[in-house]
């Protein structure tokens, strides 16, 4: 029976990819390992204690009925590789898997992730971004949305940075657009796009807002050219950055 627990240092509940990287060192259940402290037959160093893999499966979150089905699959399938593949397919089809790994199959089908290891690795990367910007871990529902989009942790970080730009400078942008723009104040979606544009996430809407702000800024500079009032206005500045930690 393959080693079905190979978390590789990844945080969170773990469903190993039973094919390929899932298959670790083979475990020979027909020849149990001697208990720790017992000498080998040849009188050499004592072998390690046998591993209770069923207990490990339970500890890592597998429900009892799922564990029982996995055991049954390996019991009735002589080829370990075939048994591992069947077990993987079964686990991924369970309601428990859908709850523990929301968005998994959709992301696999779209080619955004490869397997459970990839799913958990990306989740850890996203959690680091959330801890930095939001001071909390990401919810599973939030993660399912992100992997469904196919974005990476770098894009998520820029979204947070863009939100900080919009929060910090949004009122100044609104004043500038309302007083000197052609089409008036921006919508919340437009402000969001403008912040992300400033953070390095370009989009058609973000580019449009950037152009509107630039035109409004040119007008206000022309109106107040040579006037001390210009020095009293806080205009959007691409070199200013928001206080992310605030």
Estimate the global geometry from the Cα principal axes.
rod-shaped
| Order of helical and strand elements | HHHHHHHHHH
Roughly what fraction of the amino acids lie in strands?
A: under 5%
Rg, Å, rounded: 28 Å
Alpha-beta content class: mainly alpha
Main β-sheet, in a few words?
A: none
- Helix percent band: 40-55%
Count of individual helical segments: 10
The separation of the N and C termini measures 52 Å
Mean pLDDT equals 76
> Spans of 5+ residues with little confidence (pLDDT < 50)?
1-43, 228-235
Domains (count): 2
Using DSSP, what is the number of strands?
0
Please describe what this structure looks like.
The chain is an all-alpha fold and 246 residues long. The chain has ten helices and no strands. It has helices spanning 53-59, 64-76, 80-93, 95-100, 104-109, 116-133, 140-149, 153-180, 188-199, 204-223. Helix 8 (153-180) packs parallel to helix 10 and helix 9 (188-199) packs across helix 10. The relative contact order is 0.09.
Which terms summarize this structure?
246 residues, 54% helix, single chain, 10 helices, mainly alpha, 2 domains, disordered N terminus
List the helices and strands and how they pair.
Layout: H1 53-59, H2 64-76, H3 80-93, H4 95-100, H5 104-109, H6 116-133, H7 140-149, H8 153-180, H9 188-199, H10 204-223
Describe this structure in a few short sentences:
With 246 residues, the chain is an all-alpha fold.
């Amino acid at each position: 029976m393959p080693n079905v627990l190979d978390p590789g240092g990844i945080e969170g509940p773990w469903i190993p990819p039973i094919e390929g990287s899932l298959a670790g060192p083979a475990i020979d259940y027909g020849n149990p390992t001697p208990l720790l402290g017992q000498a080998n037959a040849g009188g050499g160093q004592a072998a390690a204690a046998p591993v209770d893999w069923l207990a490990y499966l339970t500890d890592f979150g597998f429900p009892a009925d799922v564990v029982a089905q996995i055991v049954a699959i390996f019991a009735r399938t002589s080829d370990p590789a075939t048994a591992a593949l069947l077990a993987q397919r079964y686990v991924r089809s369970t309601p428990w898997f859908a709850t523990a790994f929301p968005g998994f199959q959709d992301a696999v089908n779209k080619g955004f992730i490869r397997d459970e290891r990839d799913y958990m690795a990306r989740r850890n990367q996203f959690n680091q971004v959330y801890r930095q910007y939001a001071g909390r871990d990401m919810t599973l529902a939030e993660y399912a949305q992100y992997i469904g989009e196919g974005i990476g942790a770098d894009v998520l970080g820029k979204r947070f940075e863009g939100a900080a730009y919009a929060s910090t400078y949004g009122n100044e942008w609104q004043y500038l657009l309302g007083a000197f723009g052609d089409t008036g104040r921006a919508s919340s979606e437009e402000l969001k796009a403008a912040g992300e544009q400033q953070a390095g996430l370009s989009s058609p809407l973000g580019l449009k807002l950037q152009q509107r702000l630039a035109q409004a800024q040119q007008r206000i500079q022309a109106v107040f050219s040579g006037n001390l009032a210009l020095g009293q206005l806080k205009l959007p500045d691409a070199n200013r950055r928001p206080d992310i930690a605030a």
